[in-house]
Write a structure and sequence with these properties.
Phosphorylase Kinase, domain 1, alpha+beta, 2 domains
């Protein structure tokens, strides 16, 4: 292993192969943005997650280069730590991360049994930790970074259930004086992409704010954004369903379990989440404001207006399956 000039290490391929038991199926954790991820343990005893680049993927190569250059410059307790990289000729390329004992957030919140391990205290702690990580990316890192693919499966949990934002392959760097950019290539995951980005290619820090609002509602409700929920004999997507319940004073029907003695705090989190998913990006708070609203009971919260995608009706296929979950890349015509 050699020290790199970007603040991380270059690992020997043979060591990673040995650590992951020759990239065995038993060691496979899942699929990342551009290839499989394997659990491993180095000879030193350090546990790792090796993120492997699929061969012959030009898009994957670009995202690999983007991620390795980006994460090497980022250091925060709520971002996954990049330990180094590993290459073997031009064919094998890997990113080596710290291993997260509790896998990803979706593993818990969308499972009734495992979800019981996340009480309200832990859920609110996770919501706040994600907000702190995003605030760092947007305001306090050396570069202004927009993640562009914030979702439950990209939030990893350590042994103490502290959240860490991962998978920066889709991220975009902004200059200090730039507030937004236009692109013809739309990346992200269905259900988390704001309308101005999905329809017009306009990307900004408010894109992440929208995704954060959706993710917060998922954590509070244990419901997926890509499914539809019945209320007053109509079907609604999650953010519309949440807004309807909140407007009618029925938030208890949204949340995953009785609020106990944290009702006021949960109500505040729901309201902040709804502010984050407003149709107009200018009406969404930035992450600094989000963190303030979440942690200060003295701050009066604005009343959320009707959220984005409120009038989007499910297709027959979506109604029958009730679920769509896919990362996508779309090219807009200009």
């Amino acid at each position: 292993m050699e020290g790199g000039n970007l603040g991380f290490s270059q690992y020997d391929y043979s060591h990673i192969k040995e650590a992951t038991n020759n990239f065995s199926v038993d060691n496979k954790l899942g699929e990342g943005g551009f290839g499989p991820v394997y659990k491993g343990q180095l000879r030193s005893g350090i546990k790792i997650a090796a993120k492997k680049l699929e061969a012959c993927s030009l898009q994957g190569l670009l995202e690999f280069q983007n991620e390795i250059q980006l994460i090497a410059k980022l250091q925060h307790k709520n971002l996954v730590k990049l330990l180094g990289c590993c290459t073997k000729g031009d064919q094998e390329k890997m990113l080596i991360y710290e291993y997260m004992e509790n896998k990803s957030l979706d593993y818990f919140i969308f499972d009734n049994v495992k979800g019981a391990d996340l009480n309200w205290s832990k859920r609110l702690h996770i919501i706040n930790g994600i907000a702190q990580g995003l605030l760092y990316l947007h305001n306090y890192s050396r570069l202004c970074v927009v993640h562009r693919d914030l979702k439950a499966s990209n939030i990893l949990l350590d042994s103490e259930m502290n959240p860490k934002i991962s998978d920066f392959g889709m991220a975009r760097i902004f200059c200090s004086n730039a507030k937004e950019s236009n692109t013809t290539r739309i990346v992200g995951t269905h259900g988390y992409i704001p309308p101005e980005y999905a329809f017009h290619g306009v990307c900004s820090i408010k894109s992440d704010v929208f995704s954060y609002g959706v993710l917060t509602l998922e954590i509070l409700s244990s419901k997926r954004t890509v499914q539809f929920y019945e209320y007053n004999q109509k079907l609604y997507n999650l953010i519309s369903y949440a807004w309807q319940l909140w407007t009618d004073g029925k938030s208890d029907e949204l949340i995953y379990s009785p609020p106990g003695n944290v009702r006021e705090e949960i109500e505040r989190h729901i309201q902040v989440a709804l502010l984050c998913v407003q149709e107009n990006a200018e009406h969404r708070p930035d992450m600094e404001r989000v963190v303030t609203m979440l942690n200060s009971k003295d701050v009066d919260l604005p009343k959320p207006m009707q959220p984005a995608y409120f009038h989007v009706n499910p297709s027959e296929e979506e109604v029958s399956s009730r679920s769509i979950n896919m990362t996508m890349s779309i090219t807009l015509e200009r």
